[in-house]
Amino acid sequence: MAKLWAIIKREYLERVRSKWFLIATFFGPIFFSAIIIVPAWLASRSKATTDVYNTTILDATGTGFGHRLAVNIAGDSTIPSRMPTVRVVAPNELTPAESVATHEVMRKEKTGYVVVNQQTLAGEAARYAGTNATSIADMAQIKNAIRETILASRLEQVGLDNRKMKEITFIPLDFSTERITERGRAGSGMASVLFGFAIGFLLYLSIVVYGQTIMSGVLEEKTTRVAEVVMSSVPTDTLLAGKVLGVGAVGLTQQILWIGTTYVLLKLRGPIMAKLGAPVVNFSLPDISLAAGILFLLFFLLGFIFYSSLYAAVGSSVNSESEARQAASPLMIMIVSTGVFIQPVLLNPTGTTAKVLSLIPISSPIIMPIRMAVTGVPPLELAASLFFLAIGCLLALWLASRIYRVGLLMYGKRPTMKEMARWVSYAR
Amino acid sequence: MTEYAIDIVNVTKRFAEYTAVRDLTLRVPTGSVYGLLGPNGAGKTTTIRMILNIIAPDTGMIHIFGRSSNDPNITERLGYLPEERGLYRKMQVRRVLKFLAELKGVKGSDADRRIDEWLERLSLKTPEKDWGLAKIDELSRGMQQKVQFIGTLLHDPDLVILDEPFSGLDPINAQALKDTVVELKRRGKTVIFSTHLMDNAERLCDSVCIIARGEKVLDGIVTDVKEEHGHRNVALALEGDGMAGVASILRDHSLVKRADDSNRFFEIEMAPGADPQALLRRIVDSGASVQRFEMIQPSLHQIFLQKVGAAGVEEGMSGHG
Fold it and tell me: What integer pLDDT is reported at residue A364 of this predicted model?
């Protein structure tokens, strides 16, 4: 045990001390919060912008409609900068007034102008012209403000007092969206997809990066013959176990640091978004229970053991980095083809593809956590997935340890698949 | 103390259709310096790996200090220097050494003390510069070799196993290694090394075993081995001209069984029943100027060639390590 510990300690400390670990650990959270904040920020752009305040209202109704509209567009009459400019014009002077307003927009003094007239009072028509005419959100806000103003005028005509009228027309509707799946509500739709994507991407990246780390570590020990010295002191299985556990612990440390700092950054997201000038969207992370968190880590560890032991076997069977890249391509294909399915699974987490992929050990360590993030997974499916993954791990370890102990001592040409199959059958 | 540090009995190891070691029996007396000699591919490295329990024999028994070689506690009494050497390139020297010591069960503070002693002894740690704090790849090749020796000997093993220790060493480190071997023997340690350099083996070893094509050719105490191969050898040194005449005499197989020609120096193995005096007369008659003509014990090199034969060497060259 002391020797296993010595190997784990070396693997762990040497990697955690390296500058690549520091760089990756530092940039990880920035990257992950970027992929969460940027889409949210972009989404917030679909809300009406401050452009609607910088408009002119050409009021040809002769009823003071324009001033009321201005208040409704601003939403808050106590902020003068939000109030659109109102110009009361006679109906026959409307054409020259529009021409003036058009030139103001062309000189970029204003974003646009609204024309309200008798037709507007009748609830029939209103016009807008401006640079933001294609912005759905801006147009919706102006249109709503006009509707509200018409409604208010009509209510006033039937004799409602001002205060009562405000009470009736004030509808501060916060329209939030939520996804419903077969298993019920799944939190904010976008948030869970992003979260699922982040989880999938994190697992995918970790398995590739740390799998290759193990592979080059094994190769270094082989080419420098350190492996022989170590093998003369500890059984090969202990060496393999120490490597997988040591590097796995590095991966786990990094993930915990990533998740921790990303969490903090997300908590600080409100202030960050405010700095970016975007209104804070009501954006809640999907609730992750402790049990789910433990399951995520379990999938990570098992997936890591599955792939890294195979990577170790590859590293032990070759003699140079370039051979290793070639020999590792079947593993790369296994991982990349799983990566290809991340998006389809996110879009349809309960479909047959998702269900099948989360049972196969090759793909389940990435696919199952994604499904868990975006939808509810029945306990039976979870148990089956873990069961097959655990069996897959045992098989991979068994195969890897047999290739490993022979491969480490074989120098010269790269073995064929047939030769490697024979190594597996060697006693020792 | 057990009589034998290593006791190998009837060991065979096959890799697929190829037999690396065949029915090998050899005993290394405790406290001796033992040479495992043979051409490349003779099975030396396989034998060493079986002694170290890196691979297991198919049949036969290996005992180290009277205990089975797969006894997990025995590894702490063994020190091993593999043939081609290297260490974790990006790792600090002290940390590498400490790691190797931990694998041999040396405790932390004890390891630190021993590392200091060794670094100072091999002048890797001087008042000006402590190479222990450098990374392995910042060290010169010679310094890396020293670090490797330290790693092999740090846990004060009772049995030191060196696989081709002299290959790639500069003369200074080679001498340091020889001194170390002598020093280890003086302290009662057992040293076994493999080599194909007969000169080193002849000078350093108490006993040798020659193996070829996986089989033992001969073994025993060096002086006995040489004695056994008798006074049938002649050292001949010539000066001046007359080489051509001598060359034809040496090709006469009624007189000479084999001649090892080093241009001006010959080590000659007499044909069975041939008279060395007759050879001397023929050479003098040919007009050559003889500087030295001496009956000698055969060198290990000669015995090796005689026993293994050039064919064995050539064949072995192409085989597995």
Answer: 92
- Which residue from B56, B72, B102 is facing A6, i.e. has the nearest CB? B102
Give strand pairing partners of A116. Answer: A59
Q: How far apart are CA A303 and CA A330, in angstroms?
A: 16
Question: Is A409 in contact with B95 (Cβ distance < 8 A)?
Answer: no
pLDDT at residue B317 above 50?
no
* B315 touching chain A per CB within 8 A: no
Instruction: Give per-residue burial for B237-271: e unless 16+ CB within 10 Å, then b.
Output: ebeeeeeeebeebbeeeebbebbeeeeeebbbbbb
Domain boundaries, chain A: 2-43+180-425, 50-169
Residue B40 touches partner A, C-beta closer than 8 Å: no
Please indicate whether, in this complex, the C-beta atoms of A229 and B80 are within 8 angstroms of each other: yes
- Could you tell me the sign of the dihedral formed by the alpha carbons of A263, A266, A272, A274, in that order? negative
Question: How many Å lie between the alpha carbon of B257 and the closest alpha carbon of chain A?
Answer: 38
Average model confidence (pLDDT) across chain B = 86
What is the distance between the alpha carbons of residues B49 and A236, in angstroms, rounded to a whole number?
A: 13
Q: Indicate if the pLDDT at residue B174 is higher than 90.
A: no
- Out of 2.60.120, 2.20.130, 3.40.50, 3.10.620, the CATH code matching A50-169 is 3.40.50
Both tokens assigned to B136? 């392995």
Interchain contact, B88 vs A14, CB within 8 Å: yes
The C-alpha of A273 sits at a distance from chain B's nearest C-alpha, in angstroms, of: 43
The 10s digit of each residue's pLDDT in A326-373 is: 888 999 999 888 888 888 888 788 888 889 999 999 999 989 988 888
Chain A, nearest residue to B73 by Cα: A233
What domains are there in chain B, each with its CATH number?
Answer: 4-86+146-226 (3.40.50.300), 231-296 (3.30.70.100)
Mean pLDDT across A284-307: 79
* Interior/surface letters A317-326, b for 16+ CB within 10 angstroms, e for the rest: bbbeeebbee
Closest CA to B137 of B92, B73, B196: B92
Picking from A231, A411, A422, the nearest residue to B54 by CB comes out as A231
